[in-house]
Amino acid sequence: MNIKNTTNIFVDCHVFDSGFQGTRTYIQGLYTALMQYQDLHFFLGSNNPKSLQTIFGNHPNVTYVQYQFQNKYLRLLIDIPNIIKKNKIDFAHFQYTVSPIKRCKYIVTTHDVLFIDFPKYFSFFSRFINTILYQQSAKWADIKLTVSEYSKQKLQQHFGLSDYVVTPNAVDGAFFETYTKEQVKVRVANEFSLNDYIIYVSRWEPRKNHQMVLKAFVDLELYKKHQLLFLGNESIFNPEYQEIFDGLTLEVKNKITTIKNTDFQTMLLLLRGANASVYPSFAEGFGIPPLESVAAKIPTICSDKTAMSDFIFFREFYFDPSKQKEFNQKLLYILENNTTTEFEKMAHSIKEIYNWEHTATVVYELLKQHTNQSRFY
After folding, report:
1. C or N: which end of the chain has fewer Cβ atoms within 10 Å?
2. What angle do CA 231, 259, 14 make, to 5 degrees?
3. CA dihedral 18, 19, 22, 26 (to 10 degrees)
4. pLDDT (tens digit per residue) in 224-245
5. Are 110 and 145 within 8 A, CB to CB?
6. CA distances (Å), 318 to each of 169, 262, 280, 294, 335, in order?
């Protein structure tokens, strides 16, 4: 048996080359916590390793690797197999889809298979391709991870695979840090011309239900006192939202801001400056943004569907994303009432339950178990 003192782990970090989404939060939180283990050496791959370095920092057990190709398929077929071979990688960690050229043990995190249960939000082509890719990737993986009990149940139901381990998302410690609200609001007003605003942090897809927020903003005439901020990149065009937006007056449109391709610190600043945060998604494999906004002490209302139903501490701040009237009532409540005590208690619960150190410990133990087995090469 070939025994090494250090286990080499490659992590596909191409998601950091685009905007914020759940997979990016997952990789950043998990591997920031895992870097404390000095018997692990990490090779983080992306098209912009310098940018990646600003996120993870300099560590003796971290090497940043440059991809040669922007194309997803060339990355999986050429870039990653070459990196694995050159650096004698023991484990390669992918999100959803692995490289078909296997030169080490594989870890795959399948965050969700929402496209199977909610087909109307996804194209036929993406459903067809992803079903094949995700299922085959899981079969090739030596360690299978997912982020919620909901997703684990769905993966077993649809793929017939029962050996998934739940490694929940957690909330970055930065969200729990104290800050002076008025100072943040002044800075946001000066830099972004935003005052008394409602924020929705999410990439754009029809299942994210942006139109529910827009309808409430118009029907409740919130534009008279508030602004509305959508923060996130466009992934899939939402025609229902666009139709409503196009019919608005210039007065209302001027109170709506969309920001894309922002960095973590800017996102955190804009979240802290908000009067309220909403998360009306129809379907999520986990749903980290509402936890982050509560951690930042922002009054938040959250959808009670799919994996988000695990967030039982939301209680009266839950709503059904198919019921506009209920959403409107809950939004008005957090805008017009002092809910500081409730959300401080919720933030404490989140810090206790969703902890990256705990998730990292689970993954570390899995790595040790599989390292003690015969090595791949």
Report:
1. N
2. 75
3. 60
4. 999 999 999 888 999 999 999 9
5. yes
6. 20, 28, 10, 13, 15
How far apart are alpha carbons 254 and 109 in whole angstroms?
A: 41
> Around Cβ 70, how many Cβ atoms within 10 Å?
10
Going by pLDDT thresholds of 50, 70 and 90, the confidence category of residue 66 is very high
In this predicted structure, the answer to whether residue 2 has a pLDDT above a threshold of 50 is no
pTM here?
0.85
Residue 310 lies in a domain: yes
Q: What average pLDDT is seen over the chain? A: 95
Same-domain status, 196 and 134: no
The label of the residue with tokens 């190709």 reads 69
- Within this chain, do residues 246 and 367 fall inside the same structural domain, yes or no? no
- Tell me, yes or no, whether 340 and 367 share the same domain: no
Contacts of 22 (CB under 8 A, 6+ apart): 111, 147, 169, 284, 285, 286, 287, 288
> Cα torsion at 336, 173, 47, 141 (round to 10°)?
-110
CA pair distance 16, 20, nearest whole angstrom: 8
Cα angle for residues 30, 11, 206 (degrees, 5° grid): 70
Structure tokens at 191: 């830099």
**CATH code at 272?**
3.40.50.2000
pLDDT digits (tens, 9 = 90+) for 297-336: 999 999 999 999 999 999 999 999 999 999 999 999 999 9
- Which amino acid, 375? R
